Amino acid sequence: MFVRRCAFITFWLVLALYVLRHPVNAAHTTKALLHGLAAAADALARLVSAL
Question: Which residue, of 13, 17, 23, 29, has the greatest Cβ tally within 10 A?
Answer without folding.
Answer: 29
